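Q: What structure does this chain adopt?
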Amino acid sequence: GEWARGSWKTNKRATAWFAKSIKDMMGKVPNATIEYVWVKGHADNKGNNAVDKVASYDMHYVKANNIPVVELDDSVLLKEFV
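A:
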């Protein structure tokens, strides 16, 4: 949330992309609210486990199909995630 509000610096391309995406979305739907909830990862949390499962499937799928993981505005491929 701090990145999207501009309170934190966006030193990495992925965080800059995230902040821009949220700002663009909020510009289109100004009355929308976004709630960020911190959940300790890998702590056997039901929701976190579900997200991890989806992310794992997605990573296997994009790797098998040679699809860039994140397509940023400048088409940067974050190779460390592939």
